Amino acid sequence: MLKIFGTLTLMMTLASCSTMRSVALKTAAPLFMDSMAGIEAESNWEAFKASTPGNLSLIDGLLAVRPHDENLLVAAIKGNAGYAFGVHETFYLADKLAENDKTFHKDQAIAYYAKAFDYGQTYLKENDLSLQDLLLALKDKRGVSGLLESQLSGDQVSLEGILFTAQALGSMINLQRENIQLVSYLPVVKGMFDWACEIDPNIGHGMCQIFYGSYEAGRPAMLGGNPEKGREIFEKMIKEQPHNWLARVAFVEYFAIPQYNQDVYNRQKKDLMKYEELLKEKMNWSPKGNVHDAFKNKRLGLYQAIAIKRFQIIRKYENDIF
């Protein structure tokens, strides 16, 4: 991925006029979507934390040259939302569990999600859509999903553009539940997920299942939630995607902790401790060269790294939680 960024930087430097830069970037912009596979393969959480801000700044610079390029816009949406979730919201989890009133990481997570959502609104505008259109669609029988179906192609770029824009908005809501106006946008978030997940249920290595599981488990029954349905969604995902450890951590974070269900936590803890050791072994080179089945899908690397980082935080405070 760094090689791709280096090549693009060189192209920008050598191009002597804005037209040449624009043409070069038009050709190279799709590489950013393809390069996401390299990011997802990063199983070193510390490396992801350290390297991502610079890459996001580079995408900002490229968008200054081609502000309407949909590949670059989706890379910016996905990158900012992913960094918010993987780093600052992960750090904030420790503050929340410790009942710490520090807000730095929460504020930073919101800032990155807000930036992702701003790029998402630009992406919507490029497709003759707006947040207001999505809100109005809630009153129409076709709903948000129907509106998106009529306006977008359903290719990978549009699916990820909508999915990660929805993730950014949904995460901002989750972090600011006291903001009633913001919470009123939750049906829009669900409609956006519904559209993308209907077309590709496996998009984002389980993002749909994690969203629907937390959507049901995170709301009490009096507000339309169904924690047991959320539990079923998480358990099904864990069975179908055993190597996506983020499913287990999400199950703990969004079901076991709010429901004070120590049995669920202990069962997931048992497996996650094994996976923590597996990841340590992977990070250390071995002359045996053995690769565990858990690592055969390289694109799960970052999800696994984030999962273990969050699990370590949860385990630190487990005696205070249960």
Characterize the structure shown:
The chain has about 325 residues and is mostly helical. The chain is built from 17 helices and no strands. The longest helix has 28 residues. It is globular, with a radius of gyration of 20 Å.
Overall structural class, as computed from helix and strand content, comes to mainly alpha
- Specify Rg, calculated over alpha carbons: 20 Å
The beta-strand count equals 0
Averaged pLDDT: 90
Which parts are unreliable, with pLDDT below 50 for 5 consecutive residues or more?
1-17
Shape: globular
* Largest sheet properties: none
Number of helices: 17
Strand portion: under 5%
The helix/strand series, from N terminus to C terminus, equals HHHHHHHHHHHHHHHHH
Q: Kindly, what is the distance between the CA atoms of the first and last residues, rounded to a whole number of angstroms?
A: 42 Å
Short description:
This protein is mainly α.
How are the SSEs placed, and which strands pair?
Blueprint: H1 2-14, H2 18-28, H3 30-40, H4 45-65, H5 70-97, H6 104-126, H7 131-137, H8 143-151, H9 156-175, H10 180-183, H11 186-199, H12 207-217, H13 227-240, H14 246-256, H15 262-283, H16 301-316, H17 318-321
Helix pairs in contact: 3-5, 4-5, 5-6, 5-9, 5-16, 6-9, 7-8, 8-11, 9-11, 12-13, 12-14, 13-14, 14-15, 14-16, 15-16
